[in-house]
Amino acid sequence: MSLRRERQPPGTHVIVRGNRRVSSPISFTNFESHLAKLRADSSYLLSDEYEDLKDVGRNQPQDAALLPENRGKNRYNNILPYDSTRVKLSYVDDDSCSDYINASYIPGNNFRREYIATQGPLPGTKDDFWKMVWEQNVHNIVMVTQCVEKGRVKCDHYWPFDLEPLYYGDLVVQMQSESVLPEWTIREFKICNEEQPNYSRVVRQFHYTVWPDHGVPEITQSLIQFVRTVRDYINRTPFSGATVVHCSAGVGRTGTFIALDRVLQQLDTGDTVDIYSVVFQLRIHRTHMVQTECQYSYLYQCVRDVLRARKLRSEQENHLYPIYENVHPDYHRDVVCSKR
To answer: In angstroms, what CA-CA distances link 210 with 98, 136, 183, 186, 300?
Structure first.
């Protein structure tokens, strides 16, 4: 397959494989002007870029999800995992369909299976959900939906209501703490297998509670702070398995959370950001990831606001601590560090 770059404004370029755009990195210095071009004329170019992602990954088989025995395990009949990326549970007895759960491995910036994107558990799949958490060595769960929204059930309540332990199949789950904040709640659970009660694991659930279905939070700061909080916890548990992320269908808000986590890491480690490529990769692994154009646009908005805040902070620091001429370059750094 041939790789080539399309002509773009300075600081931006599009990488094409065959006839398919796969990447569109944007330099930090050109981001603001590039976004202005995308949003010109009622966001014509932004809509065109998002539309270009519509069919990515869609030709892959979903045979396991379509088996009659598994159909009832899917919350929505049009959101199904691909066979090549689906998470498989261990078999139970001779049931050939007992390995199925509507969940997909998603790559991150660091690992090939850094996330598991999944639907909100159904009453009949709660045991499977916790089995997946146990078998995949999951230490962190991100929930970006309410159980009920606008009178409709979006996700079954799959964890204990209080400190009393509950059984989910062979697993015992007990809530140990719950910290309720204005926009999210952090819960800690102890989970163990009833056959090995002395071997347990602590699992954290990060529950973001102010994200409307198919929409985006009102401001970017809240979600950015939430994503950074989760990332900080993930980095503190380096030997854990994938991070489970779910909303209701496991594609819209779930995809946006994962994409934002990856993009924020790009902002911290490089000098370009590639929102298009991140969403492209997500859609190769699970259908409909970042489900709406407003969610895709919101990712750009988050990046813009982070870069603006960073620029403002830099200007303030330069104003407070001017760089003196004809001195060793380490002098300014040491002055800044000491004054902080």
So the answer is: 34, 28, 6, 14, 20
Which segments of the chain does DSSP mark as H helices, in order?
31-51, 63-66, 68-71, 126-135, 220-235, 252-269, 275-285, 293-320, 329-339
Going from the C-alpha of 128 to that of each of 32, 87, 199, 310, the distances in angstroms are: 45, 11, 20, 43
pTM: 0.89
CB 185 within 8 A of CB 171: no
- The arithmetic mean of pLDDT across residues 95-100, rounded, is 92
Instruction: Give the span between the Cα atoms of 141 and 2, in whole angstroms.
Output: 39
Token digits of residue 23: 């990447």
The one catalytic residue among 147, 247, 294, 302? 247
* Residue-level length of the chain: 340
Q: Which residue segments constitute the domains of the chain, with CATH numbers given?
A: 3-51 (no CATH), 63-306 (3.90.190.10)
Q: Confirm whether 247 is a catalytic residue.
A: yes
Give the pLDDT of residue 333.
41
Mean pLDDT of 33-59: 95
